Structure formats: structure tokens, C-alpha cells
Amino acid sequence: MPLKILINGAGIAGTALANFLVRSKQGHDITIVERASKFRTGGTQLDLKSHGAPLMKRLGLIDEVRARSIHETALTFVDTKGREWARFGINKAGKRYSGVTSEYEIMRADLVEVLYEGSKAIAAKTSGQESQRLRYLFAKHATELTQLDSRVKVVFSDGSSDEYDLVVGADGQNSMTRRMLWEPKQDDNSALRYTGYSVAYFHLPKTEEEIDSNLFKNCLLPGLKVLSLRCAHKDFTQAMLTASTTEELKELDNQPVEKQKDLWEASYKDFGWEGKRVLAEMQTTDDFYTASVAQVKVDTWSKGRVVLLGDAGYCPSLLTGLGTTASLVGAYVLAGELARHGDNVGEALESYETVLRPYVDKIQQLPPMNLAIFRSKLGLNISYFVLAVLSKLKIDSLANALMRDDKDTWQLPEYPELELEE
Ligand SMILES: Cc1cc2nc3c(=O)[nH]c(=O)nc-3n(C[C@H](O)[C@H](O)[C@H](O)COP(=O)(O)OP(=O)(O)OC[C@H]3O[C@@H](n4cnc5c(N)ncnc54)[C@H](O)[C@@H]3O)c2cc1C
């Protein structure tokens, strides 16, 4: 029987779930509400690791991803005077380095657009089936969730209300869905486990030198500050600021954007290298994204007819580089279990958790990096020296060790109940 489903959040997880649900033979009625007034364009490039690319292929969207992919050729380390100490990735065969960058690197906004267009196209194809409907509603979010026997009553920000067979919280790391039902007090956000790092991402106009550059340049300062410039996008350079979270930066998530920018400016004002240019551009950019890097851990991903998906339920954190892939995998398993269990939504949600939990437990293991060495000036000097030696010897193991990929340790289940491409 078709289900009436509400998805909170049109990020990666929400749009991916819409794609899998419209491919279910059940012909669900799907509404996605997004709090922002349009798709959010902020963020840097994301990559599809392990199961991510095969799932996009099964949705028939891998060619679109490939067409929009960004091709970096090397990872470099420079000092505050701009002198390059190490470069990983350029070799005689002209092959790229592996590790931090993957075959499928795509801007977050492009990936959301590919998923959005994909879901609309499939829904249009199947619109002959009366119950198969999909709608995206922007500038709207749920403000109240009340569990009824086998439904959920939802009150929305515009005062309207409706009832659904299933509500999916795909509303990101600071999920309101989770805070409404999982946290004792909504302001607690007690499911967040902070890693001690904060990040800010935005775009800059390219300089002359960056126009033909495909480099991912990094400059490190004591105190775990890293300023990175990724130059491979043809239209702009991406700036990434990382810092060890100070008392002020802890407040980031709850501040207006202007205040967030000021906090970053204060933290980076004496950086050197490209710092001045980057901070000046940050003040005028309108695609600023900042976050305290955290993992989300909750004991159970569903309560009654409400279920969490993606970062809302099991954010692995930016440090793992696996948040996007985890959202795709989670969306696939949730849609697959719903299709498999038909009318029995309770069993489907239990099975979603049983199948996915071992995968999430693996990807939430943070990389075994002891970053303490980067805190002092001496430690940092030693690190630059080691990087220079590794680079001279053409040893790329550093880049490969930084990001993990769990394809071989957990297999994707098969769901013939979903009509996917081979
Ligand atoms: C603007 C932006 C930029 C990002 N940039 C990067 C990046 O550069 N690198 C990186 O690794 N990760 C980035 N992330 C996080 C990354 O997208 C996620 O970690 C990952 O893809 C999992 O996706 P998700 O859909 O679970 O969460 P998200 O991608 O965070 O999507 C959640 C969506 O829900 C919406 N939302 C929030 N609250 C509500 C609500 N109450 N009701 C309805 N909708 C709501 C948000 O506007 C957003 O569209 C970014 C996220 C955002 C929102």
C-alpha cells in the first residue's frame, strides 16, 4: 500500500530518499519541506566514496555527477610566506593522487541539484500511477510533531497542519526533528558529540594565477589552524578555514551569519599567506557555511512513525569525509526496507536500524590521527619537514591514510523491490 510520507530537509539525504522512494513499486505520496527559501548553495566540493558512486549509478545519475565533477591534480603544503614545501600527486604518468580527493568530487549544491532533478524526472515518468506524487515545498518546516496510533500529526511553520504515515527527519546535524522528539529539552542538542574543530567554507573570485590551477593548497599554523584553497573549479576558488574550537567558536551554530564571520575574522586575522584576501572576501560572500564539527549519536533512529536519516541521525562528521556517502546509503536502506515490509512500517524501521547500524558504527570511527603535534610551532616545523621528505620520495601514503573508505567491510543489501538501474 502507498504511504503518505513527509521528509523534513532537502539536503543530500532528503533528495536521495525521494529518488529511492519514487522508484518503489508502492507508489508513495511524498512531500519534502525545506526550511530555506531555495536550495542552499553553500559548501565546498564533496566526494562520493565507496558505495556512493554505485548508488548514484543505480539511480541513473552517475553521468550527471561525472559531467559536473571537479578534477584536482595535487595536494600541496605551503608556509605563511607562500613557499611550497610539499606536493603530492603529480607523477610522470600524470595520474592524480588518491586519498583526500576521489574520482567523484562534486560541489554540494550540484549534487543536491542532480538528486532533485533526478527525483522529479522519475516522478514525472511514473505520474500515470494515481498515488505516485512528489512535491518540494520551500520556506516551510515542521514546528510540532504529535504521534497518533499509526500516523503523525504535523504542524508547519505557516500554521497549516496535516497527518502522515511516516515522517523522516533529514534536516542535518542540528536536526529539529531529532530535537523535538529525542532530546529532553529542545535546546539540549545532547546527541551532538563535538570533535573539537570548527570549519568555515565559502567561494572567492579566482586570481590570475588560480585560473588554470587544479591545486588543493594548504597552509598550517600552530593551534591547529589550517587555511586551504581549492582551485580546480572553473568559476571560483573555494576557501576552507579550520580551527581548534575556542570558547567563542563554540557559539558559532547559534549566531547570525555576520557574527559568525566576525568570529572567524578574529581567529584568522594574523594568519599570513592569503589570509587578508580570504577574510576580505568572506565578509562579502553570500554562500558562507560554517559548523562546529560534530558526530551525532542516538540510541535509536526511530520513534513511533518518525525516523532519522543522514546527518540528523548518524552524522559521522566532516573529519571522516563519509557524510554524503552515509546519507546515500541510509536513504537506500530506508527506502528498501519500506518497500520490503509493505504495510508494516514498524518492522521496516526496525530493520532499517538492524541493517544500517553496523555500517554507521564503522564509519563513525574517527581517523586514527594524533593532531597534537600541530599545536606547537616546533611540532609544526617538524611536520613540514616530514611532509617535504615524503613528497621528495613520492610517498603518497599520507594522503591515502587521511581518509578511509569502508566499501570492503560492509556490503550493500539488495532490494529488488526498488526499480533501480543495473
Ligand atoms: C549549506 C551546506 C553546506 C555544506 N557544506 C559542506 C561541505 O562543504 N563539506 C562537507 O563535508 N559537508 C558539508 N555540508 C554537510 C553535508 O551536506 C552533510 O554532512 C551530508 O551530505 C549529509 O547530508 P544531510 O542531507 O543529512 O544534511 P545536510 O546536507 O546538512 O542537509 C540538511 C537540509 O535540511 C535543511 N533543514 C535544516 N533544518 C530544517 C528544518 N527544521 N526543516 C526542514 N529543513 C531543514 C537544511 O537547510 C538542509 O538543506 C554542508 C551542509 C549544508 C546545509
From TrEMBL:
* Molecular function (Gene Ontology), one example: oxidoreductase activity
For this UniProt record, give its keywords in alphabetical order, as a comma-separated list: FAD, Flavoprotein, Oxidoreductase
> Does Repeat count among this protein's keywords?
no
Give all residue intervals belonging to the FAD-binding domain. Answer: 4-363
InterPro entries, from UniProt?
FAD-bd, FAD/NAD-bd_sf, FAD_aromatic-hydroxylase
Where would you find the membrane-spanning parts of this chain? Answer: none
Source organism, top-level taxon: Eukaryota
What's the name of the protein? FAD-binding domain-containing protein
Query: From which organism does this entry originate?
Result: Bionectria ochroleuca
